[in-house]
Write a structure and sequence with these properties.
The protein is an all-alpha fold. It has 7 helices and 2 strands; from the N terminus they run ααααααββα.
């Protein structure tokens, strides 16, 4: 097992990932306390922070800065950002709690499954469907944070439509992860 050292922790991609985690309390505070006047700003900040996932991944691959810590922290940061933002939208009835419960349950189950796989020496890589799910979640949450009409488009309705698609992708990709795990264990 690779031992963590200062050089591995202090890479630029890991720094970007850590900034994504540090931005979560700011975004949540803005969702809860800024009111309608700042929802567009909050939505744009959420989208910007969520987009850093592509940046840290690009930097890690481009400059060969992929680390064990980054492989663990990057997906965790994404899940924390998206899931906490979804949960923050529940009290204002911006999203149905049932959808959030299913998506959060799927995230916990898949993360646990991938952890078990790693402990058995297996790697279950992120699926293409799981990546699409994340994109739909990010765009849906962005629309739901803004939550009002913008440029003649009802962003709450758009966000809910995208949220239902994200839910479908979450369930299908979750089943896919379990099938891949069982296939690897049985063979």
């Amino acid at each position: 097992m690779e031992k963590l050292n200062r050089e591995q922790i202090m890479t630029l991609p890991n720094g970007v990932t850590i900034l994504r985690v540090l931005a979560i309390p700011i975004i949540l505070s803005m969702i809860f306390y800024s009111g309608q006047d700042y929802r567009l700003l909050t939505g744009l900040l959420f989208l910007l922070v969520a987009s850093t996932d592509m940046i840290d991944g690009y930097l890690a691959r481009r400059y060969s800065l992929t680390t064990t810590l980054g492989k663990f922290l990057d997906p965790l940061a994404d899940k924390l950002l998206i899931v906490t933002s979804m949960i923050a939208l529940v009290p204002g009835r911006d999203v149905p709690v049932g959808i959030v419960i299913v998506i959060v349950g799927r995230e916990i189950a898949v993360t646990g499954l991938r952890g078990i796989a790693v402990s058995q020496g297996m790697v279950i890589a992120a699926s293409t469907l799981g990546k699409y799910k994340t994109v739909f979640e990010v765009v849906a949450v962005t629309c739901l944070i803004v939550g009002k009409e913008f440029l003649g488009i009802n962003l709450h309705q758009v966000g809910m439509g995208l949220f239902w698609i994200a839910l479908l992708l979450a369930v299908i990709s979750g089943i896919e992860y379990f099938k891949r795990f069982l296939k690897a264990v049985i063979i």
